[in-house]
Amino acid sequence: MLDRSVILANINPCVGIIIPIYNVEKYLKECLDSVINQTYKNLQIVLVDDGSTDNSFAIAKEYFDKDKRIALIKKKKNTGMGSSRNMGLDYLSQCLNKEKKGGGARSI
């Protein structure tokens, strides 16, 4: 019988995290620092700026520039968190399809 810890040690799935952003400059750095500093490193982080009018996009861009696991999508108009989450899911689906074909993607 195989030891469960041996099986889990050989599995390192990529975990997708979608973070909708709308006028959250006050909290965004704390949120992103928390995510990027997780002990589990195999992450694909998708930031979807939903037409923020504050400094949220600039902060998100800083993190995008310094961490290759982050993708950044900017929407021109605020359409709500549900729409932003769906856009993030679409992005992750496209990435999975490209990885299966041997490519990769970082941003839309």
TrEMBL record:
Any one GO MF annotation of this record: hexosyltransferase activity
Database matches in PANTHER family: GLYCOSYLTRANSFERASE, UDP-GLCNAC:BETAGAL BETA-1,3-N-ACETYLGLUCOSAMINYLTRANSFERASE-LIKE PROTEIN 1
Top-level taxonomy: Bacteria, Pseudomonadati, Campylobacterota, Epsilonproteobacteria, Campylobacterales
Entry protein name: Glycosyltransferase 2-like domain-containing protein
Domain Glycosyltransferase 2-like residue range list: 17-91
Organism (species): Helicobacter anseris
Coiled coil spans: none
